[in-house]
Amino acid sequence: MLRGRSRCCGTRISARYPLTELTTALLFATTVLVLWDDPTEIALGLVFVAMLVAVTLTDLERRIIPNKILLVTAAIGVAIAAVGDPGSLPERAIAAVAAGALFFLAALAYPRGMGLGDVKLAATMGLFLGREVAPAIFVALLAGSVVGLAMIARNGAGARKQAIPFGPFLAFGGVVGLLLGSELIDLYLGTFS
After folding, report:
1. Taking residues 48-68, what's their average pLDDT?
2. Per residue in 89-148, pLDDT tens?
3. Shortest CA distance to 27 belongs to which of 63, 53, 9, 8?
4. Using an 8 Å Cβ cutoff, are 133 and 99 in contact?
5. SS3 sequence of 72-103
6. HSE of 52, CA atoms in CB hemisphere, 13 A
């Protein structure tokens, strides 16, 4: 009805805004459908995917993952888990420390390649996903590697010096971990046990 323009000033509305809203709505609906039988996991999942959308957009646009988003989201996640599933808090804490430590070591080994925002995002993912953070990180690393290799194949060796934000890959892995993490762990354990 507005023909892609703001009602108040007539400025053109970027396609990014309706795409973001559509993506968030689809993630919310999928989260509710997949986690339907557990209200605590639904609440955690909705907060989690909202954070992942915000982090992805910020990292793509500004190449930063804001501490405020991560801290508030982590506090909300701990509060929801403490009320709805207090027995899961030790596993969530261990997953947060393990994921954060893994990425912290990567940041120490290659500071230009990994930022501390990625470290904190991985730790926050551990709080929300628990053991499902393992397949989430695997998917994130795999997706990042595929994109990196595609860039090298397209642009040659010079592409190795191009920086790409890793937050969106972690967010993608986080969504996979949330929606399919348990099944992926069961598949792995069934295949290699």
Report:
1. 96
2. 999 999 999 999 999 999 999 888 788 999 999 999 999 999 999 999 999 999 999 998
3. 53
4. yes
5. HHHHHHHHHHHHHCHHHHHHHHHHHHHHHHHH
6. 29
Looking up tokens 């809203």 gives: 21
Query: Which distant-in-sequence residues (6+ apart) come within 8 Å of 65 by Cβ?
Result: 55, 58, 59, 115, 117, 118, 120, 121, 167
Rounded to two decimals, what is the model's pTM?
Answer: 0.90
Which residues neighbour 117 within 8 Å (Cβ) at sequence distance 6 or greater? 59, 64, 65, 66, 67, 70, 167
Q: For residue 32, what are its two tokens? A: 């509710």
Residues 172, 143 contacting (CB under 8 angstroms): yes
Evaluate whether 131 touches 95 at the Cβ level (below 8 Å).
yes
**Are 137 and 185 a contacting pair, CB within 8 Å?**
no
- Say which residue the tokens 């309706």 belong to: 18
Helix, strand or coil, per DSSP, at residue 13: coil
* Phi, psi (degrees; rounded to nearest 5) at 165: -65, 140
